[in-house]
Amino acid sequence: MDLLDRIGVDNVMFETDYPHQDGTFPHSLATAEKLFGHLDPDAKYKIARGNAIKLLDLPFDANRGEG
After folding, report:
1. Quick check: 66 and 30 in contact, CB under 8 A?
2. Residue 52: Cβ-neighbour burial (10 angstroms; 0-12, 13-18, 19+)
């Protein structure tokens, strides 16, 4: 998160790596809030969901968050 301005919000994704021990589950939501909860809603959406949808061409609307 310290380099977000240099990397760009369009190039960052949050992952939980479930079910591995080094993942954040079952505390993923709290971890995400701690790491990027202070960002504007658009940036939070991109990091938590939108960038992965776009990169992986998932069948969800990356602009509206709908599946």
Report:
1. no
2. middle
